[in-house]
Amino acid sequence: MKKILAISVFCLAALSAGAQTMYDAINYADYNYYGTARSAALGNAMTAVGGDLGSVGINPAGSAVAGFSQFTLTPGLSIASTSSSYAPVAYGTFGSPTPDSQTRFIMPNFGFILQSDLRRDYGLKSFTFGMTVNMTNVFNERMTAGGTNNDSSMMGEMAYFASGIPGSQIGTEEAYYNTNYSWRDILAFQSGLISNYGEGDDQYIGSTELIYDDGTIGLGGPIKQSYYRQRTGSKADAVINLAFNWNDRFYLGGNIGVASLSFQENINRMESAVNPDDFALIIDDVETTWLNGRERYSLETEGTGIYGKLGMIWLPVEGLRLGAAIKTPTLYSISERWLWDAVCNFDGFDTDQFETPVGDYTYQLVSPFNFNLGAAYTMGNVAMLSVDWERTDFRSMRFREADRSFGYGSFSEDNEYIRQNAGVTNNFRVGAEYKPVPAFALRAGYSYKNYAEKAAGTKDLTHTASLGFGYSSPGSFFLDAAVRYTQCPDSWYYPYDDYLEVRSPEVGIAKNMMDVILTLGWRF
Predict the structure, then answer these.
(1) Contact between 235 and 137 (Cβ < 8 Å)
(2) In sequence order, which residues have a C-beta less than 8 Å from that of residue 505 and are 6 or more positions away?
(3) Which of 28, 96, 307, 431 has the most crowded CB, counting CB atoms within 10 A?
(4) Are 495 and 472 in contact (CB under 8 A)?
(5) DSSP assigned state of 96
(6) Which domain holds residue 422?
(7) Residue 41: closest CA among 520, 373, 480, 435
(8) What total of structural domains would you count in the chain?
């Protein structure tokens, strides 16, 4: 089922800019906690642990556990590696994979908490106030794939789907402001990726295609195809936190959170002739041959949202901690800007790059409700084991028009699709800490989470493993470090739709990520 999902993601995102889908909502609403190096090293199994600024976003009560004020700063690196394979037809034989990678500097955490000791022997003993920023996702990917195709082409697909649209209507700049026409069709025609043939002006042929003697249209010869996609951006939650400590046994806290979202995507699809002589053409009464063509799509997304979160930690007996937190849906305001450009090159002709106007659209997204439960057991000051379960119901996501406070307007079909096809994710996390000496700690963690589509299976799990250590000086300074490895589910997509009796190529992507995180902290 992951194959169908990934195909839909590419086609809907690349070919229908400005159209929001369930997969966009999942991409923007899903959580992948980063936080401090300590929380990352423990697999973010922090619901019942607390005492750390990385735990504040998971359970607001965690800030009251530490018993002191603190400030932390956490820089890091995110390294994404991909291995992408190409098959000239869907479900065909894949060629050798092409490796690619991208490294980004990240800032998973910074902030402070201030503890006020009320100097009481019982009852409300202290409270904490804090402001923290914790990253909740990193968008990091670069992939390249390609091979030789003898059956179909991007330009042939463009020509097929533009059929019936008068060229006289889409050959001018004013066509972009006519809602009856697709920007992609307009750009393909104006750039020369497709052109008219026959007596009318509403039938099209791709520059990779020829008309044979029997009147059929087909690929002129083998072509080289290549596909490139890059994704960058991040999500982060800035929270104002207030938490209370009763008798060093019960902790209660709340967050007012402001979520920020930044996502950028660039997609390039390129085709070139293996043998240009296979593509003999006549342009303006001049004989020439087609050489290559490219279509590029760019998307920039920015968003902010607000939510509330409430959490508690309870110590029923010595050594045992139980924690729980509940988070309201986040109401996002999201703005998107997108642009297409294309160029088609012929032997002996100077060709220009054509581009569409910049499209923009603002809408609202209501992200899902979620809750998490946790338990931790501490063995004095020597060791700790913690487990977490977090559940998120993506069926409750909804799009809204930005200028309407209530109702979903034109998003009714999209929201019904979400209700029918989105699912529930379960994120299981476990972490362990061991202190061979009081000043030094060794840590490890593991988590897995299913994908937020109802039809997702066991192969669609994201697995994350982490290791780390911590040093606490006799004074106020402390240092934590972590390395985290994430294995993402394999994904596939079709670069373009099937047309006539030919099928699109298929690209398969294997991806993993490694994060290296360092926290510098001071107690006061």
Answers:
(1) yes
(2) 86, 87, 88, 89, 90, 147, 149, 152, 225, 494, 495
(3) 431
(4) no
(5) -
(6) 2-146+237-523
(7) 480
(8) 1
Give how far Cα 392 sits from Cα of 312, 427, 452, Å: 19, 8, 9
Q: Which residues pair with 457 in a beta bridge?
A: none
Cβ neighbour number for residue 502 with a 10 Å cutoff: 16
Domain assignment present for residue 401? The answer is yes
Q: 3-state DSSP call for residue 451?
A: coil
Contact assessment for residue 260 and residue 233, using Cβ atoms and an 8 Å cutoff: no
CATH code for the domain of 308: 2.40.160.60
| Alpha carbons 90 and 86: distance in angstroms, whole number | 10
Instruction: Tell whether 249 is covered by a domain.
Output: yes
Nearest one of 70, 97, 99, 107 to 82, comparing CA atoms = 99
Domain assignment present for residue 180? The answer is: no
The packing angle between helices 154-162 and 183-191, to 10°, is 120
DSSP assigned state of 170 = H
Report d(CA 295, CA 120) in Å as an integer: 69
Which residues pair with residue 114 across a beta bridge?
Answer: 129
Per-residue confidence in pLDDT tens, the chain, 524 aa: 344 444 433 443 334 445 789 999 999 999 999 999 999 999 999 999 999 999 999 999 999 998 899 999 999 999 999 999 999 998 889 999 999 999 999 999 999 999 999 999 999 999 999 999 999 999 999 999 999 999 999 999 999 999 999 999 999 989 999 988 999 999 999 999 999 998 889 999 999 999 988 888 999 999 999 999 999 999 999 999 999 999 999 999 999 999 999 999 999 999 999 999 999 888 778 889 999 999 999 999 999 999 999 999 999 999 999 999 999 999 999 999 999 999 999 998 878 899 999 999 999 999 999 999 999 999 999 999 999 999 999 999 999 998 765 444 589 999 999 999 999 999 999 999 999 999 999 999 999 999 999 888 777 899 999 999 999 999 999 999 999 999 999 998 899 999 988 889 999 999 999 999 999 999 99
* Burial degree of 410 (CB within 10 A; 0-12, 13-18, 19+): exposed
Q: Which two tokens stand for residue 52?
A: 């750390």
Alpha helices in 288-363 (DSSP H): none
- For residue 179 the two structure tokens come to 């809602």
Beta strand 370-379 with 398-401 is unpaired
3-state helix, strand, coil in the chain (%, to 5): 15, 55, 30
Q: Are 261 and 136 in contact (CB under 8 A)?
A: no
The residue behind tokens 């890059």 is: 230
230 domain residue, yes or no: no
Any residues with CB less than 8 A from the CB of 31 and at least 6 apart, and which? 136, 137, 235, 370, 392
Cβ–Cβ under 8 Å, residues 73 and 105: no
Tell me if the pTM is above 0.90: yes
